[in-house]
């Protein structure tokens, strides 16, 4: 993977965590890293820079990670609703994971953060992108990670129930460059 081509936005109110993530990203070759201390600052950066991936903390003062992701995914004036987002948190309870998933997060990374975990999440985003789903109840990546042809159960999602699939990775604007 060509990590040197990626533009990554880190959103975390903890400067030590941002520094740790920057060091991990630089060690694997990422050269363009942008920093924000909360969701409000991150939205301003997204309006100026076409980032490829966002890593955001869940719990921040001001606009937290869940609210930030909701604005990126659902706001009519969102600068990039299809941008891949990795939620990072030390609060990896089932409830918080579901909140992040339901907000439209692509991947979830529990603290303590490791280089292996960061690289693995980047690999998932780049090598295994998921289609984007837009419905009345959900906006974000398809929650199903694979399409099993042998699956016999109820798919619970039909085109006639108001779901739109958007293949965002056909557009160079929304494709991670690595």
UniProtKB/TrEMBL annotation:
Q: Which InterPro entries match?
A: CheY-like_superfamily, Sig_transdc_resp-reg_receiver, ST_Response_Regulator
A Pfam family in this protein? Answer: Response_reg
What SUPFAM superfamilies does UniProt report for this protein, alphabetically?
A: CheY-like
* Signal peptide range in chain numbering: none
The organism's superkingdom is given as Bacteria
Residues bearing 4-aspartylphosphate are: 57
The segment(s) forming the Response regulatory domain are 7-126
Region ranges (Disordered): 143-178
UniProt lists compositionally biased (Basic and acidic residues) regions at: 143-162
Coiled coil feature spans: none
Q: Which SMART domains match?
A: REC
Q: Which UniProt keywords apply?
A: Phosphoprotein
Protein known as: Response regulator
Q: Which organism is it from?
A: Caulobacter segnis
> Upper lineage ranks?
Bacteria, Pseudomonadati, Pseudomonadota, Alphaproteobacteria, Caulobacterales
């Amino acid at each position: 993977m060509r990590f040197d081509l990626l533009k990554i936005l880190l959103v975390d109110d903890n400067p030590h965590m941002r520094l740790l993530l920057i060091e991990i990203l630089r060690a694997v070759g990422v050269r363009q890293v942008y920093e924000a201390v909360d969701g409000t600052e991150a939205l301003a950066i997204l309006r100026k820079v076409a980032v490829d991936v966002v890593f955001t903390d869940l719990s921040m003062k001001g606009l937290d990670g869940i609210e930030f992701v909701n604005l990126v995914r659902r706001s009519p004036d969102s600068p990039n609703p299809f941008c891949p987002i990795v939620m990072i948190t030390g609060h990896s309870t089932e409830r918080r994971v579901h909140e992040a998933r339901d907000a439209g997060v692509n991947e979830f990374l529990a603290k303590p953060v490791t280089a292996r975990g960061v690289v693995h999440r980047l690999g998932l985003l780049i090598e295994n992108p998921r289609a984007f789903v837009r419905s009345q109840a959900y906006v974000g990546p398809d929650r199903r990670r694979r399409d099993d042809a042998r699956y016999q159960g109820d798919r619970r999602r039909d085109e006639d129930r108001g779901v739109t699939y958007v293949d965002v990775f056909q557009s160079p604007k929304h494709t991670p460059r690595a």
